[in-house]
Amino acid sequence: MTNHKKTIKIGLFGFGTVGRGLYQLLQRVPEANLVLSRVCVRDVARHQAEAPELIFTTDPLEVLDDPDIDLIVELIDDADAAYRIVTESLRRQLPVVTGNKKMLAHHLPELIKLQQEMQTALLYDASACGSIPVIRNLEEYYDNDLQISVKGILNGSSNFILSKIFNEGMSHAEALRLARELGFLESDPTLDLDGWDSLFKLVILALHAFGVYVNPERVFTYGITHMNDSDILFAREKERRIKLIGLAEKTPDGRLVMGVMPHLISRNKYIYSCEDEFNGVVIKGLFYGKQFLVGRGAGGHPTSSAVLSDISAIRYDYFYRYKRMHSQGGLPEFSNDLSFRVYVRYNTEADLELLKFEDITERYISEETRYVVGRVNLATLHAIRNELAERKIFIAAYPAD
Amino acid sequence: MTNHKKTIKIGLFGFGTVGRGLYQLLQRVPEANLVLSRVCVRDVARHQAEAPELIFTTDPLEVLDDPDIDLIVELIDDADAAYRIVTESLRRQLPVVTGNKKMLAHHLPELIKLQQEMQTALLYDASACGSIPVIRNLEEYYDNDLQISVKGILNGSSNFILSKIFNEGMSHAEALRLARELGFLESDPTLDLDGWDSLFKLVILALHAFGVYVNPERVFTYGITHMNDSDILFAREKERRIKLIGLAEKTPDGRLVMGVMPHLISRNKYIYSCEDEFNGVVIKGLFYGKQFLVGRGAGGHPTSSAVLSDISAIRYDYFYRYKRMHSQGGLPEFSNDLSFRVYVRYNTEADLELLKFEDITERYISEETRYVVGRVNLATLHAIRNELAERKIFIAAYPAD
Question: Residue A371 phi/psi, 5° resolution?
């Protein structure tokens, strides 16, 4: 693809929010010289009406085996089908752009290997934090410094809900309803609200930041489903906001800890002001210090803009080098052994025993609510994750500053 | 430089804050395989004591003509000398990394031509916004979208002073003294305080964002030197903060307007919370919407980290393609014809006449102070810039929201 003026013919899978956004974006930038040659969808008739000039098909092979097609853009929901499309493309030495974080989080090791074997690029900056070029920057810009942490609001929908609650005084239920109405929630809202979507993104980011692939199942993940009004009141009293945070951090002794959970964020943190459907990522390195990147994390146009950046990068023969994975200094080992302070609202004293508190520094019991503040171990939380959810316990990290 | 494991030998010019920062950074990341082979400075004896194992020289040719050297890093203050070093390096097909914004802002067209002629890369992400990879992102990531604006706090020192005033209640004079004590001001503080440093960065950013080179002399530039306590009071009353902002923006009719001046920033803007020596840049595009990047904009380590990123990029054969300059959609024309709302504190009624207000919507006169709020034209301000300064008038953009 060294001829940069040549028209690039794209085979597109999926014509949902992001696929349609890409279609609209390409109409506005004809000088990009990109053409959607074939589009594979489930329901041809429906999409043909939206875009009469495009050639739709239900047969993946009609796209993959079309000799005219230069690259594949995969924007479907189903992670298993996405994996098949991406691997089939790479095997045909067709470069691929994808936004499927669930698929990536589960298959990155195989996909990295396949890219190398087939000498074919797979780019996926659209998969993490929508329009924020966080993967590209981790890969290309922050790759020499001594990386300390990557932390942020990685899910736009849950952040939208939390913003409405904390800034506009909506109830949890009202905010949820509004997010649903605006189409900000995934078809399965637990993906957003229980932190799974953030988890998938975190796994991708950690690979590029620290060179380590961590299976999603090893990472403690807990969302905002069980948050209630007394948690909101607690946060307000402490002048904090609750944010759903994904965090990957190197400990002083060189291990890599990761987690997705609500945090009580104080006013002096950048993330405190990251609102609505925006995502915000703080990247820390020993020398550059703290970087903060903010951008829209949901919506067809911002995400399709990220897809377009990846398409353009492929045109310039860009590929991820996964430089951190080949770091000569050795890689950090993943670990859940981390003691940290949390706020826990619970129902019965048996709930508390489950958590094996190392200490408790604040305790409140009334007829309406019960909570404690104290230190727990991340490994304990990971082991009892499902019981926490079954018992409708709310838990949030509560850092000192 | 396709052998990425090979040790790269660097010829360094300058051993000030950033040069020393780079030296320290390289000691911490030995796996980067980068060696400072020769360092050209004015005072060898002084620096030899700081870094006994380095080879210092006062003769530029000892560095430039050393056949072992793979690339040049130029980190000196003097813009004219820097220009000679950079052009001499490129003519020898030695890639160069520089942080000299003044030199770049005045010579970019020649330097772009020379890079192309000699097929040799010149990278300079450290020149704008310290550790924030803003040039790289404009060049590589936001290059396909329809760019609307680049706006931000581009100078860490003046922002540090403004933060101390607005957050810690220091007087202007106290804040200035502290900034000087901490070494945050350039040797010539008017570079920071009068907006020239921001201007140079803005010229560089505008070239990468819009593909247009604008001579710094054509851009209205006004700083915070004449700000006084009544301006601070005015900002507080309106619940705003004064920030020194560089702005390049495409008007709806397709022209490019640019300016550096104080802005009264309201609480709902990201830039409002960008404090201390941090820089913050908001980049807007039609599809991705709004991106906000924050990072340290001053100091040896953050800036040397950016220099290291550029060195590493050269190792991977990266070069700026200046894609926007070759945009098929045509380039916007630079213009100062823009009417906008300002706050102006003045001394005599003759001051006011100079500004040729289109309208005045607020007017205050007391024994202590006089100000107006109203609309002026940017072209008028540009024409009377020096008179504004001589008359010690303070002026700040005062947008509606």
Answer: -145, 160
Token pair, residue A109, equals: 């090791």
Region A83-89: mean pLDDT is: 98
Least CA distance to B135: which residue of chain A?
A: A141
Give the residue from B258, B282, B298, B260 showing the smallest Cα distance to B161. Answer: B298
Q: Is the dihedral of CA A324, A328, A329, A332 positive or negative?
A: positive
d(CA B234, CA B371): 9
Distance from CA of B137 to the nearest CA of A (A): 8
pLDDT classification of A4: cutoffs 50, 70, 90: low
For residue B3, the model assigns a pLDDT of 52
| Catalytic (active-site) positions of A | 201
Task: Output the pTM of the full model.
Answer: 0.93
Mean pLDDT of chain A: 93
A32/B145 Cβ within 8 A:
no
Task: Provide the annotated active-site residues of B.
Answer: 201
Question: Which of B326, B329, B322, B357 is closest to B343 using CA atoms?
Answer: B357
Q: Which of A141, A299, A304 sits opposite B309 (nearest CB)?
A: A141
Give residue B5's pLDDT band: very low, low, confident or very high (50, 70, 90). low
The sign of the torsion formed by the CA atoms of B72, B77, B78, B79 equals positive
Q: Which two tokens stand for residue A9?
A: 């013919």
Closest chain A residue by Cα to residue B293: A293
**A313 vs B contacts (CB less than 8 Å):** 140
A302/B313 touch (CB, cutoff 8 Å), yes or no = no
| The amino acid at B26 | L
Q: CB distance A28–B287 less than 8 Å?
A: yes
Contact at CB, A137 and B140, closer than 8 angstroms: no
3-class secondary structure, B307: helix
List CB contacts (< 8 A) between B29 and chain A: 144-146, 329
Burial (CB count <10 Å: 0-12, 13-18, 19+), residue A350: exposed
Dihedrals phi, psi of B51, to nearest 5 degrees: -140, 80
Tell me the Cα Rg of chain A.
22
Q: Determine whether the interchain pair B295/A295 forms a contact, defined as Cβ–Cβ distance below 8 Å.
A: no
CB contact under 8 A, A294 and B270: yes
Least CB–CB distance from A291: residue in B132, B270, B312:
B132
Instruction: Give the chain B residue nearest A146 (alpha carbons).
Output: B29
Query: Which of B32, B294, B308 shows the shortest C-beta gap to A292?
Result: B294
Span A10-31, mean pLDDT?
92
Which residues of chain A make contact with B133, given a CB cutoff of 8 A? 137, 141
Q: Are A313 and A71 in contact (CB under 8 A)?
A: no
Which residues on A lie below 8 Å from B138 (Cβ)?
none
* pLDDT band at residue B1 using 50, 70 and 90 as cut-offs: very low
Tell me, letter by letter, the H, E, C secondary structure of chain A.
CCCCCCCEEEEEECCCHHHHHHHHHHHHCHHHCEEEEEEECCCHHHHHHHCCCCCEECCHHHHHCCCCCCEEEECCCCHHHHHHHHHHHHHCCCCEEECCHHHHHHHHHHHHHHHHHHCCCEECHHHCCCCCCHHHHHHHCCCCCCEEEEEEECCHHHHHHHHHHHHHCCCHHHHHHHHHHCCCCCCCCHHHHCCHHHHHHHHHHHHHHHCCCCCHHHCEECCCCCCCHHHHHHHHHCCEEEEEEEEEEECCCCEEEEEEEEEEEECCCHHHHCCCCEEEEEEEECCCEEEEEEEECCCHHHHHHHHHHHHHHHHCCCCCCCHHHHCCCCCCEECCCCEEEEEEEECCHHHHHHHCCCEEEEEEECCCCEEEEEEEEHHHHHHCHHHHHHCCCEEEECCCC
Q: Which residue of A has its CA nearest to B33?
A: A328
Tell me which chain A residues have a C-beta less than 8 angstroms from the C-beta of B306. Answer: 288
